[in-house]
């Protein structure tokens, strides 16, 4: 089945999904949201469409103020980004009405439940790992996308693993994989990280 994504929408949607758990999907999503809000001054929301529960933990750790965004409950704002923990697909219509410039979906590694949402996004980003024990899942994910015959290009990125494995993987599958700049905390970005996100979504 061929899914078509369009950049004609007023709100740009970015889907970030991991080829397996523990590859840095949420870390990357927070970094991107912070870049768009703080550096590009875009009205940005970060939506948790997975069951990891990381956003609730973030709220507890940072003791941020809960806000009521027109009856959509359990939301909070951190560093200018509106966070929507543990949302479901049927709640997205309400969020789209908020006139955000960017909606970023943290899909975790839950492909089966989030496949359609991911493929509808204007920008799709697959996070993989070149740690030896996660390489098989990354390769399986790439094969799965090829079987769907999706015509649009995706951004493949990685934060972990061996450079040699990355080069061999790119050659084998005829794709380019960007390396996510290292940031100890996703809430503080350095200038060298900006260019990465400009390539990703601007």
List the helices and strands and how they pair.
Elements: E1 12-18, H1 25-39, E2 44-48, H2 54-62, E3 66-69, E4 72-78, E5 81-84, H3 92-96, E6 102-106, H4 111-120, E7 123-130, H5 135-148, E8 155-161, H6 163-173, E9 177-179, H7 191-201
Parallel strand pairs: 1-6, 1-7, 2-5, 2-6, 7-8, 8-9
Antiparallel strand pairs: 3-4, 4-5
Walk me through the structure.
The chain has a nine-stranded mixed sheet with strand order 3-4-5-2-6-1-7-8-9, with helices on both faces. The longest helix is centred in the first third of the chain and has 15 residues, at 25-39. Helix content is 37%, strand content 25%. The chain has seven helices and nine strands. It starts with 11 loop residues before the first strand and ends with a helix. It has 202 residues and is of the alpha/beta class. Strand 3 (66-69) and strand 4 form a beta hairpin. It has one domain: P-loop containing nucleotide triphosphate hydrolases (Rossmann fold), CATH 3.40.50. Mean pLDDT is 86; it is low at 1-8. The chain has helices spanning 25-39, 54-62, 92-96, 111-120, 135-148, 163-173, 191-201; strands at residues 12-18, 44-48, 66-69, 72-78, 81-84, 102-106, 123-130, 155-161, 177-179.
